[in-house]
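explain this chain.
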Amino acid sequence: MRVQAAFDEDGHIIALAEIVAEGDDRLGVRLVPCADRKLAELTVPGECVGEPLAELAARYRVEDAPEGARLILR
């Protein structure tokens, strides 16, 4: 499962939206960046697939590294 995350400079997740593949019957949501937020597309850890996105945001933060952003435990 992949998500789009909006996060601040400290990696705290502000919002998450599941990335829905084209052709899927579900409605997809896209986040819009603002001046003090970044966006990244991330892979959700296997043990978290199917959990509510709010729980994922509460347990993880985004590490914005030169090789790419990733979710890490707080």
User: Anything to note?
Assistant: The chain has one domain: 2-73.
